[in-house]
């Protein structure tokens, strides 16, 4: 790595907080700092978000970890690979078909914590 692990962890921590708040997505900071493939997916996810800070942090992470330029935010690769859609009715039906259990109706968490 070209940068200190402290700086990489700081950028990944900020990305983690913004992704959790804005996209309800959770990332593994420690794994992203050790695995470039996972870090590239985090950068791709940031590129698909409509948050200016996420895009800037993704660019910074790409520079710090010397990630492939093909997945930097704003690249054609980032545009071709949008973030997966959240679980919807079709996915819930597919899960029910595989597991044999219907998805519970109503909110899963009391108070909407998650």
Report on this model:
It is a single chain. This protein is mainly α. The protein has one domain. Helices cover about 60% and strands about 0% of the residues.
Radius of gyration: 17 Å
Q: How much beta, percentage-wise?
A: under 5%
Overall outline? elongated
Q: How many helices?
A: 6
Tally of discrete structural domains: 1
User: What is the β-strand count?
Assistant: 0
Distance between the termini: 35 Å
Largest sheet geometry: none
Q: Provide the low-confidence segments as ranges.
A: 75-79
Mean pLDDT: 76
Helix content: 55-70%
- In terms of quaternary structure, the protein is single chain
- The helix-strand sequence is HHHHHH
Structural class: mainly alpha
Q: Brief overview, please?
A:
The chain is an all-alpha fold and 114 residues long. The chain has one domain. It contains 6 helices and no strands.
Features:
114 residues, mainly alpha, 6 helices, elongated
Secondary structure elements and their pairing?
Elements: H1 5-22, H2 29-34, H3 36-48, H4 52-65, H5 76-80, H6 89-99
Helix pairs in contact: 1-4, 3-4
